[in-house]
Amino acid sequence: MKISARNVFEGKVQNVTKGAVNAEVTLALTGGEHIVSIITNSSIDSLGLSEGRTAYAIIKANEVIVGKGVDGSKLSARNVLAGEVISSHDGAVNSEVAIKLAGGATVIASITRVSVHALGLQKGVKVSAIVNASNVLIGV
């Protein structure tokens, strides 16, 4: 299967916490980062998710928020992945920003060109890729 999402990260299920309807899944990526997803309990069951299982976190580029100086800040988003801008390509309205995480994975963000310039996002700038857990799909 091929998908249009720009961000697909392989990891091992570290934890599954079921609630009444939804569950929280934490994937440990090979580079040491963790990605948290909120999916339904029925999805947990149909995917056969359990600790130690290989799975994929899938995030569309337009779901990634880019922030500077947010390390240690209190945010409601469960996924705050620190990294460094490795490239930025401007379009007429949106730009594509590639962020390399410490563990080596690359996150692609699609944000407005105005935001790229307002934040001064250029190669080498330290940033965080921020994603709400409910915007992370899980695949096996």
Which features characterize this protein?
140 residues; five-stranded antiparallel sheet; 2 helices; elongated
Give your account of this protein's structure.
- This protein is mostly beta strands and 140 residues long.
- Helices cover 10% and strands 51% of the residues.
- It contains two helices and ten strands, in the order βββαβββββαββ.
- The longest helix has 7 residues, at 41-47.
- The protein is elongated and about 45 Å long.
Specify Rg, calculated over alpha carbons: 15 Å
H/E element order? EEEHEEEEEHEE
Instruction: Please bin the fraction of helical residues.
Output: 10-25%
Low-confidence stretches: none
Largest beta-sheet characterization: 5 strands, antiparallel
Q: Work out the number of β strands.
A: 10
Derived structural class: mainly beta
β-strand amount: over 45%
> End-to-end span in angstroms?
11 Å
Q: Describe the strand arrangement of the main beta sheet, using strand numbers.
A: 3-2-1-4-10
Characterize the overall form.
Answer: elongated
Number of helices: 2
Mean pLDDT: 96
Brief synopsis:
The longest helix is centred in the first third of the chain and has 7 residues, at 41-47. This protein has helices at residues 41-47, 113-119, and strands at residues 7-18, 22-29, 34-40, 54-59, 65-67, 79-90, 94-101, 106-112, 126-131, 137-139. It is mainly beta.
